[in-house]
Amino acid sequence: MRVPTPRVPSEPVPAARPPLLVVHPGAELYGADRVLLESATALASRFTVTVAVPGPGPLVGELQARGVRVQTCPMPVLRNAALRPRGAVRLLADAVRGTPPALRLLRRHGAAGVYVNTLTLPSWPLLARLAGRRSVCHVHEAEQSAPRLLRLGMALCPALADRVVANSRFTLEVLAEVAPRLRRRSTVVRNAVRGPADPQPARAELTGPLRLLYLGRLSPRKGPQVAVATLQELRDRGVDARLTLVGSVFAGYEWFEAELRGTVADAGLGDRVEFAGFTADVWPHLAAADVVLVPSVGEESFG
């Protein structure tokens, strides 16, 4: 008598993860860039994520190292320069040039929707609607003192999105001042960025120079000039201190770094200030600092 061979159940085939498109206005590794990195990594556990950025930069390598697909796509980015005639023309040109590839990306990689990081990308929620895709706009900006025309323009992106995520209550309140109806479809989700693998305690005693740290973009709004003035004041009061500036300028603001270096030289602080430039790993600088300065001269969302 022949005994039938028992059938071994086949392994279940995992369901394909739905494709999700993530768009971001740059490829650096500052605040919103780092949040995008963590968001894309988390979303990749449930979706097949494709991140679209306008060009190369360190963010691309970080995303690829985490197994996230990255594609470049020309896109209009809303900035202060758009208030000037030349900037408005360039914004319009970027919108026209970026529309066909954006629609292709939406149709190919956005079946589950599109996640728009920052409100400087107003074309994407509109194109998502045209392509029949739902969109979420993640707002990091709180430009309360910006010209009203610019604030209205910046509210366009979340206004066109199906849902809005704000990184703090303050960010949402600033947005709602010019677009109050957005409150009903907005959610506050505070930023989450991975900390250092091995946190270091602060110095037990402040022996030697006081170590000041400025960490961020070198821009007039972020206030590194205030950090330099603080160091000068400390020196004049007889406090031995040093300042490290970690960060770089945005393209087009090279004049500000030159001006800042000139201020340092004119004040005789050349031996007390270090321009460390951009670095992706900020934790060693934070571990070495005694005082971290956040001297912004404008509003901060503090998400």
Structure description:
This protein is of the alpha/beta class. It has 2 domains: 19-188, Glycogen Phosphorylase B (Rossmann fold), CATH 3.40.50; 210-293, Glycogen Phosphorylase B (Rossmann fold, 3-Layer(aba) Sandwich). 36% of the residues lie in helices and 17% in strands. The chain has 10 helices and 11 strands. The strands form 2 sheets. Strands 3-2-1-4-5-6-7 form a 7-stranded parallel sheet, with helices on both faces. Strands 10-9-8-11 form a 4-stranded parallel sheet. The radius of gyration is 23 Å and the shape is globular.
Features:
303 residues; 7-stranded parallel β-sheet; alpha/beta; 10 helices; Rossmann fold; 17% strand; 4-stranded parallel β-sheet
Which strand order does the major sheet show? 3-2-1-4-5-6-7
CATH superfamily of the largest domain: Glycogen Phosphorylase B
Strand content: 15-25%
**Number of separate helices:** 10
Q: What is the top-level CATH class of the largest domain? A: Alpha Beta
Query: Low-confidence segments, ≥5 residues, pLDDT <50?
Result: none
Distance between termini?
74 Å
Q: Assign the CATH topology of the largest domain.
A: Rossmann fold
Strand and helix order: EHEHEHEHEHHEHEEHEHEHE
Mean pLDDT across all residues, rounded? 90
Query: Tell me about the biggest sheet?
Result: 7 strands, parallel
Counting structural domains, the number is 2
The count of β-strands is 11
How would you classify the helix and strand content by structural class?
A: alpha/beta
Helix content: 25-40%
Rg, nearest Å: 23 Å
CATH architecture of the largest domain: 3-Layer(aba) Sandwich
The shape is globular
GO molecular function: glycosyltransferase activity
Keywords: Glycosyltransferase, Transferase
InterPro entries: Glyco_trans_4-like_N
Organism: Geodermatophilus siccatus
